[in-house]
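Session log. Operator J.P. requested a structure for one protein chain; no other inputs attached. Running the standard single-chain path with token output.
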Amino acid sequence: MLVAERYQHILRLVNERGSIRVAELSQLCKVTEETIRRDLDRLESEGRLLRSYGGAMRISPEAVETSYQLREANQVSEKQRISLEAVKHVAPNDRIVLDASTTTWHLAALLPDIPLTVLTNR
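Structure written below.
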């Protein structure tokens, strides 16, 4: 079994069962417990599961937020199209509010050099 396949197998088991022990994963994947521990550490660092003493647990879907880097690269053409349309509605001396979303990042890059008040949530 390739490493990537093992990661997917581990994630599938954790997500199906809710939690699983290192010893069981070791037997199912036919690798040492130390290898499983390293795999779990890697998967936890990627935010794909939670480590617990002796095993791992799934992350509840509502607790997971997609990283900014992943969101930034997702649906870029749509974000640019939205931003191009929105910037048409910005006039000198307007007051606008921009949140920390990746779509508004595209909008901010397109704002003209005019007197403007910009409020943010950061």
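Operator note: The beta strands are 19-21, 50-52, 55-57, 95-98, 117-120.
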